[in-house]
Amino acid sequence: MIFQSVLSSIVRAKLTTGCQLVWRAPVINMRQSKSTAVRAILELIENREGCRRTPVECKLGRYLPDHQFPWMKSSDAFMGRINFAGDREFLYPGEITEVVVSFFSKPELDEKLKPGMSWDIKEGHRIVGKGKLIEVLDT
After folding, report:
1. Which of 53, 123, 67, 126 is nearest to 99 (CA)?
2. How far apart are alpha carbons 67 and 76 in whole angstroms?
3. By 3-state DSSP, what share of the chain in percent is helix, strand and coil, each rounded to 5?
4. Residue 65: is its pLDDT beyond 50?
5. N or C: at which end does the chain have fewer Cβ atoms within 10 angstroms?
């Protein structure tokens, strides 16, 4: 199972005044959301200060880094699930492989995706890899 279906999560905090604060997290349901899939080349950047030091487990199907495209501000990114082809178990820093990336669909992303374009793959604020689009897939 790739994602648990989550309707919403509720966080309750008791304030010193006895009032109750309720916060509802945004709903993320990859199965029901429209997504845009692309075939791409993924390169994990070699181990250096600030980069990923451990391999990505390819078989888990849960690698969900942020994807930052050239037209975006440094604080913005799209969420996208990376699916690895074949029977590969790990992708180590410095290695390159072909992948399918499923992005949560947004009109501004769909209209800008073009074969040959490159983007950064991030974990938090760290750039851990590079992606290069081969083709946009029909979903």
Report:
1. 67
2. 9
3. 5, 45, 55
4. yes
5. N
